[in-house]
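not sure who needs this but someone in the group chat was asking about NADP-dependent 3-hydroxy acid dehydrogenase YdfG from Pustulibacterium marinum so here u go. i didnt clean anything up, its just raw.
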Amino acid sequence: MSLENKVVYITGGTKGIGYGVAKKLLDAGMRIAISGRNLETAEKAAKELGDSSKVLGLSSDVSKLADEEAAIAKIIEKFGQLDVVLANAGVGNFAPIDEMTEEAWHQMINTNLNGVFHTLKASVEALKKSKGYYITLASLAGTNFFANGAGYNASKFGVVGFSQAAMLDLRKYDIKVSTIMPGSVTSHFNDHEPSEADAWKIQPEDIGQIVEDLLKMHPRTLPSKIEVRPTRPDKK
């Protein structure tokens, strides 16, 4: 896929991984739409990225299908097309299962898993027209379970399974579907504040490079599931 003037929509694109991918793809010549729950924050991030003719900031709560449908409509209205979608929005609540609240459970399932479905459901007709690409941001937690991670594991195992099945459903339309499964990434996830201590981790721009490489892959070839880790774990 030639990236010049192609349009990408990134959920959870106002900071962290989503923002890093947006910056990388903007530099590669794409037009960018990013969303977050707060419109002011999304518009501020879009302005920081660059030219308003090439960048659009939107508010959307991915746990609500109507929000994603409205976001896609605004993207089509501004850019006239949609070629790539990165379902990146996610939250994490970590606690032993006997202590996890119903609210925390539903927040993760509604955002991490239902949100991925809503984003695809809202964008799939546009992607059929463009023969586009749908990419989900899962996690190594989507294949490796851990203590205190039951809710997060459930949501990310679901994202991986959803993405692989959607890939089989949609390739007849020449739509590619991939899921990226990172390990530790420097981001604001779970209220973390990035610092120099995170230098050993995967950086947001590294995920951006993976996305760019996927988009430039020859159309005959589909890396459908990509695991990525820091080269060396933190030395503690």
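also Residues 102-130 form the longest helix (29 residues). if thats useful
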